[in-house]
Amino acid sequence: MKKIVIEALGSPEKQARCVDAADPAAPGAGEVSVRILAAPINPADLLQIEGRYGVRPPLPYTPGHEGAGRIEAVGPDVQGLAVGDLVLPGVFGTWCERIVCKAAGVTRLPPDTDPLQAAMLRANPGSAWAMLDAIPALAAGDWVIQNAGNSAVAGFVHRLAARRGVRTIAVVRRAEALAAAKASGATLAVVDDHERGRDDALQAAVAEAVGAFETAAGEPPAPGGQPRIRGALDAIGGRATARLARCLHDGGVVINYGLLSGEDCSIRPHELVFRGVRLEGFWLSSWFRGAGAQRIRTMYDELAELMRSGTISAPIAATYRFERIAEALAHSAQGGRDGKILLVGED
């Protein structure tokens, strides 16, 4: 079989190699063998190869935090799973053609789910679902703001929030990205042009946009002039964290889940001390450990059905076979790319 191997940390394009390897052994008790149909290239994968992620697997290793595949073989003592089932493996190391994993960690999907979309179900939709769930007292009519507002995670946040009656504000860096953010389901989209203005410029732009929206909807002005922005999702860190915090209603929460800036999160004491704003971190792996099996199952059952019905989806820029890993990684590094890059096998 083909698999991707990382033998040293560094540039993903230089370090990732596709090698021929023996197929894994037959599944043992409580295990299944899965043929990988598709696995996305996520920012976490690239950061891990560069040595900048929170966890460093021992070298050499095969990357891949998520993917989708079909069960090829079932070991003894496995119930509820069968050969041919479309599944999420639920294990690390999905940049390969075959993998053996514990049946307990496998999520079975509706059979008519698109395998390419299914490959992107675990990380980004799961993060969007769990982060929305972590915002206290979030109710219909409230707002959530997020930067990297045209990203894959953002698109899932927009769609999932809308199902709850929650409105979303997508913050993007370029005016050219506004249309994509709106198309992904954002209620409003604004540009964070802090480089040409003050750190409070985003706060003013958001307040104006929300005020205009609520006025047009015939809603009364927000008490104290503070829009009900209960949560902020921060994928960037650095000063971007502080700019989101300024936009929040008193008592709101900033949830940081990414480090695109490469800088530590920054937030003014004024927000923390006088306005009761909180800054929290989110990592899906940690959430899994605390959520419990039933809650994880509930989340993925809901997300799988939404994906099967087409309610949620993610754009795909291109697909590449495993042996074209260098081209795939080069494409994933291109700026302005509209959609995910997926590594694919044979169905």
TrEMBL record:
Signal peptide: none annotated. It is an enzyme of class 1 (oxidoreductase). It holds the Pfam family ADH_N. InterPro entries: ADH-like_N, ADH_Zn_CS, ER, GroES-like_sf, Mito_Enoyl-ACP_Reductase, NAD(P)-bd_dom_sf. SMART domains: PKS_ER. It catalyses: a 2,3-saturated acyl-[ACP] + NADP(+) = a (2E)-enoyl-[ACP] + NADPH + H(+). Its EC number is 1.3.1.104. GO terms for biological process: fatty acid biosynthetic process. Residues 10-343 form the Enoyl reductase (ER) domain. It comes from the Bacteria. Keywords: Fatty acid biosynthesis, Fatty acid metabolism, Lipid biosynthesis, Lipid metabolism, NADP, Oxidoreductase, Transit peptide. One of its GO terms (molecular function) is zinc ion binding. Transmembrane segments: none annotated. Belongs to the zinc-containing alcohol dehydrogenase family. Quinone oxidoreductase subfamily. This is enoyl-[acyl-carrier-protein] reductase. It comes from Quisquiliibacterium transsilvanicum.
